[in-house]
């Protein structure tokens, strides 16, 4: 694990410990969720780039329930996910809420499949306590996230792959994306293709499709760059205004004998330039 990820994990653990110690003391045994309260874990498109998820809580009991600190634990993570906004939420009977949590770094020495649990500060009437429960990943996103990020970690041992440049072009012409590959000299990998995004594709006038790369990386490989053509996939102002993953490029990769996908995001400044270019290329830019 990198020093940055280790530091992030330490901060996450410290915050979680501070948040949940207050309910009955550090040694208090957790209790079950109140009758009628159900929980599940989901990840919306808007959560993906920030590596967040949401604890969905539904109160079908007869009594209002107040929720304080929330943490989600899973052995596939190096630390626990904690509530993004430090606040309390009161759920009347029949109401529900999605509580956003920040996911910690993955622990690639962990398990591919595991039990996920949630712990919450609960207040019912005058009684406050800590409740714990298993929580289901209803969309199955955790397994995919774990596989994708661990493959990215493995690729980083072989090479640094990043978006290094972007060149806009006039309307009707293809812009250019520069993919940088800097081998470390250790291990082998192959970059097979880059998938189109919800915003961008690679061939004008054709259906969106992966662009073959066919790049092999090994101990003797030299640093290189690859120029990738870009054209807008859709000229829809809402697509740009509501963009979530339009400048995150998914690469089909093989590292060692493991095949999967990794996400390579454009840096923030470059993302802004790409969105501006799409608007101008499509004719609705300011």
From TrEMBL:
Signal peptide start and end residues: 1-28
Keywords: Signal
Stated name of the protein: Lipoprotein
Organism of this sequence: Microbacterium lushaniae
Lineage of origin: Bacteria, Bacillati, Actinomycetota, Actinomycetes, Micrococcales
């Amino acid at each position: 694990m990198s020093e940055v990820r280790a530091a992030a994990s330490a901060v996450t653990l410290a915050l979680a410990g501070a948040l949940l110690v207050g309910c009955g003391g550090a040694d208090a045994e957790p209790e079950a969720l109140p009758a009628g309260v159900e929980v599940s874990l989901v990840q919306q498109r808007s959560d993906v780039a920030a590596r967040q998820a949401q604890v969905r809580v539904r109160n079908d009991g007869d009594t209002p329930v107040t929720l304080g600190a929330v943490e989600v634990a899973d052995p596939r993570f190096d630390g626990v996910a904690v509530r993004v906004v430090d606040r309390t939420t009161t759920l009347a009977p029949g109401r529900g809420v999605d509580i956003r949590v920040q996911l910690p770094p993955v622990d690639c020495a962990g398990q591919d499949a595991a039990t996920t649990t949630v712990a919450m500060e609960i207040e019912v009437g005058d009684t406050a306590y800590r409740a714990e429960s298993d929580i289901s990943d209803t969309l199955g996103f955790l397994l995919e996230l774990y596989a994708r990020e661990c493959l990215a970690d493995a690729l980083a041992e072989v090479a640094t792959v990043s978006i290094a440049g972007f060149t806009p072009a006039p309307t009707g012409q293809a812009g250019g994306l520069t993919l940088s590959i800097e081998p470390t000299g250790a291990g082998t990998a192959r970059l097979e293709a880059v998938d189109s995004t919800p915003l961008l594709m690679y061939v004008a006038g054709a259906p969106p499709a992966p662009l073959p790369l066919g790049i092999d990386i090994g101990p003797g490989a030299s640093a290189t760059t690859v120029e990738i053509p870009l054209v807008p996939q859709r000229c829809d102002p809402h697509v740009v205004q509501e963009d979530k993953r339009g400048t995150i490029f998914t690469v089909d990769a093989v590292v060692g004998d493991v095949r999967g996908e990794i996400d390579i995001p454009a840096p923030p400044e470059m993302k802004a330039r790409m969105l501006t270019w799409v608007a101008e290329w499509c004719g609705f830019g300011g």
